TrEMBL record, chain B:
Keywords: Membrane, Transmembrane, Transmembrane helix. Residues 42-52 have a biased composition (Basic and acidic residues). The chain crosses the membrane at residues 6-26. Coiled coil: none annotated. It comes from Gemmobacter caeni. This is Cbb3-type cytochrome oxidase maturation protein.
Length: 739, 52
């Protein structure tokens, strides 16, 4: 973070938005902050640690990070499952993630720059502050109101009313602001949102109470006004917190897309923003790098991982004249490409267009709360105004009485419980899912998830980890395996890495192989006991290629040996599929991978409907066809080729390891590796939708009892207070019943 | 009734103290990580030097 940014953030850190007790404290930065500002070279890194959950986790994570050279301090936030690290500017996130992995926690980097807005969470603190003020005055006004209700009379009652007014009026002005603002915004565009009756009730209740107090009236609604503000702010705060937690972790995972590329211009390598690359230029991509553009290889050989783009699990050989697409990963050797399409024309962007089309075709979901508000607001206003008209006519023009009644109707019907009904349930449910490792990005995702009857899975990277696993180590003599291990140790290729790991796990030690040399795109060769040994592609080792993923070893003696690999199943995938099937959902598997691999996996998991070799557009079309047939579709996928399908589905889930674009397109992010929580999510979603409906019924029931009382003029401030608090408490308790 | 002239200001003052304490806690970030704070008391690391 730069010094400028640090200073920009000043007011949030010191909470300037709040009425500070000491203005000077705010104006003068504390010594601590001065010290921070003096060290602008500090780097601030943010990591998401989804599996941390206990006291021991905090110390383990902080200790593991503190042991990394260059780290000054690390602080874990368990609520947000996020750790912030103060470190030397030279330090990158990779060694920190590795250190955490060593300690047994998976971690993802978060973009600290984007995060600064949510870290101090100005809006959340603002709401909490208003909630605190409303709570304070609610208690004090209630104290005075109870005295009035229990029989204070004449001068005493008037004095109590005046004191209540002195507390309540500033509170309503301060704490009611979020409602006034949003009511004004919705009125200006000519709509009646939920906030219009709320604001009207707040203003009318305060105004009429002041009027009554001035005329020594019996009833003042100051307590009702502040109580209303308090309960509604509580709902608003819960709602905000749910969204803030999700936003901070899901959308701000650092982007995986490369913003820059290395271009060769006049023999020199220059880093250039991707948008500035022109067709025909030469671009260099190092091993481990992602293709920034579409192009044709002019120099170098390597292997390409296309899994995120196409779902293919096998690395593909690439050499001069091979056509590559943006988004593929270069595995072994450096490559130089001639750009054929960049920016808007590249295949990455065509994929984005596909997403835009799917987005446009999707109908907007109307949440339960919106539907309730749409029916509720006009009804409340109508009731209140007709009560006013009726009593004006009945009493022959007693304005004071008529206004009193219509205010009582507004206060009693005011959607206290309705304001809490949805946020309380969504907070309880998403808190529960968050602890299981699922992040709900969108508030209505739970409601949509509850209706799902068809689940579509992607294969590579979703049901499987996209990590190859050695399957036939036991078939080889110890010596051959040890030679293979030694050769594999010289390469960063995923198959080689997996071979080394499997060997180490079996207690093997690499053989003494000298002159190790990696031939990009082919394999590794070396000298062992005076002979040349090779580990790599079938053609290079003079072996016959098997139909499965394999690497081949030739030692010069006997026929070449094949080490076969299978994509490892994601932990919990089998359980999730079984549980979803038990819930009566139709499970489908749509993959871009070859038929053999897909059929094998579908058989292992017991999935009957599967499609192999699907192109991105075909995936989206299949999901759209299911939707058109009246199914509610949940799409689970991670690749770029899934994004259009994720968007087209009613609700979508992607793992945290997915590409940025896929995570952005989906409603729910799976933070851990384990997939089992998906089955829990559908169960909890159905339960929470049921709770939301119950909450609506509860608040409707209170209104059915209380509104007639208000209409005939029997409602006292005491009755209003009782109806309001009882209904609010009962909907909150109902929300907490969520299992 | 004279007692009210004392009692009401006193109750308001005490409530106000609570409110100021709440503002202070909010500003110090004490509500930023309630779960972490609940767990931190269980570890020995912070016994002598509370970590900010």
């Amino acid at each position: 973070m730069t010094l400028a940014q640090r200073i920009d953030r000043g007011p949030e850190d010191t909470g300037l938005g709040a009425p500070s007790a000491c203005p000077a404290c705010v104006a003068a930065p504390s010594a601590e902050r001065l010290a921070q500002m003096a060290g602008p070279q500090d780097a601030r890194l943010m990591l998401s640690v989804p599996m941390a959950h206990c006291a021991a986790c905090i110390s383990t994570v902080e200790q593991a990070l503190a042991d990394v050279p260059g780290v000054r301090s690390a602080r874990m936030n368990l609520t947000l499952k996020r750790v912030s690290v103060d470190a030397d500017p030279a330090l990158e996130a990779a060694p920190l993630i590795a250190a955490l992995k060593g300690a047994g926690y998976e971690a993802h980097e978060l973009d600290a720059g984007l995060l600064s807005a949510t870290e101090t969470d100005k809006q959340g603190r603002d709401l909490l502050m208003r909630l605190g003020v409303a709570g304070f005055s609610m208690m004090n006004v209630m104290l005075l109101s109870v005295a009035v209700w229990s029989g204070a009379e004449d001068a005493t009652r008037d004095m109590f009313h005046w004191i209540s007014a002195a507390i309540a009026l500033p509170t309503v002005v301060f704490a009611g602001q979020p409602f006034f603002k949003s009511a004004w915004a919705s009125l200006r565009v000519g709509r009646l949102g939920m906030d219009v009756p709320i604001s009207l009730a707040l203003i009318l209740a305060s105004a009429i109470s002041v009027f009554e107090t001035m005329h020594s009236g019996h009833h003042a609604y100051f307590d009702a006004a502040v109580m209303l503000a308090f309960f509604l702010l509580a709902g608003r705060y819960l709602d905000h917190r749910t969204r803030a937690v999700a936003r901070s972790a899901a959308e701000e995972l650092a982007a995986l897309e490369v913003p820059r590329a290395t271009v060769v211009r006049e023999g020199e390598e220059v880093a250039v923003a991707i948008s500035e690359i022109a067709v025909g230029e030469l671009v260099r991509v190092r091993p481990g790098g992602r293709m920034p553009v579409d192009g044709v290889i002019v120099e170098g050989t390597s292997e390409l991982d296309r899994s995120l783009l196409t779902g293919e699990s096998l690395p593909v050989w690439a050499g001069p004249d091979t056509v590559v697409s943006a988004g593929e990963i270069n595995l072994t050797g450096p490559l130089t490409l001639r750009v054929t399409a960049a920016g808007k024309d590249s295949s990455l962007h065509r994929m984005a267009d596909l997403v835009a089309v799917a987005e446009a075709a999707k109908t907007r979901y109307t949440s339960l709360a919106e539907r309730a508000a749409r029916a509720y607001s006009p009804l409340v206003h109508l009731l209140s105004f007709s009560a006013f008209g009726f009593w004006m006519w009945k009493t022959g023009g007693d304005l004071r009485y008529a206004v009193n009644i219509s205010a009582a109707v507004l206060i009693i019907t005011c959607p206290c419980a309705l304001g809490l009904a949805v946020p309380a349930v969504v907070t309880a449910a998403s808190g529960k899912l968050f602890r299981k490792g699922l992040l709900i990005k969108d508030g209505t995702a739970l409601e949509r998830l509850a209706e799902v009857d068809t689940v579509v899975f992607d294969k590579t990277g979703t049901l499987t980890l996209g990590v190859p696993e050695l399957t036939n180590l036991g078939d080889h003599p110890r010596q051959a395996a040890e030679v293979a291990m030694a050769l594999a140790g010289a390469s960063a290729h995923p198959l080689a890495q997996s071979l080394v790991q499997a060997g180490r796990a079996a207690g093997l030690h690499p053989a003494q192989v000298s002159d190790l040399r990696e031939v990009p795109g082919y394999g590794v060769e070396g000298q062992w006991r005076g002979c040349r040994v090779r580990l790599g592609r079938a053609g290079w080792c003079a072996a016959e290629a098997l139909p499965v993923t394999a690497t081949y070893l030739c030692t010069g003696e006997g026929s070449p040996r094949a080490f076969t690999f299978a994509d490892r199943l994601r932990p919990g995938a089998a359980e999730a599929v079984a549980a979803l099937q038990a819930q009566g959902k139709d499970i489908r598997l749509i993959s871009g991978d070859a038929e053999g691999a897909v059929a094998d996996l579908a058989g292992r998991l017991g999935i009957r409907h599967w499609t192999a070799g699907a192109l991105p557009a075909e995936k989206a079309a299949e999901v759209a066809a299911l939707t058109a047939a009246g199914h509610k579709v949940l799409m689970v996928g991670d690749g770029l080729n899934d994004t259009a399908a994720l968007t087209a589905a009613d609700v979508s889930i992607s793992p945290a390891t997915a590409l940025d674009a896929a995570r952005t397109a989906s409603d729910i992010v799976l933070l851990g590796q384990d997939m089992a929580p998906i089955a829990d999510a559908t169960r909890i979603a159905r339960q929470s939708t049921r709770r939301i409906r119950e909450n609506f019924s509860i608040s409707a029931l209170y209104n059915v009892v209380a509104v007639p009382l208000a209409l005939v003029g029997l409602a006292t401030p005491l009755a209003a207070a009782l109806a309001m608090s009882l209904s609010s408490i009962s909907v909150t308790l109902n929300a907490l019943r969520l299992k | 009734m004279g007692i009210l002239t004392f009692l009401i200001p006193i109750s308001l003052f005490m409530g106000g103290v609570g409110l100021v304490a709440f503002f202070w806690a909010l500003k110090k970030g004490q509500f930023d990580d309630p779960q972490g704070d609940a767990n931190r008391i269980l570890t020995k690391d912070y016994d002598d030097r509370p970590k900010q």
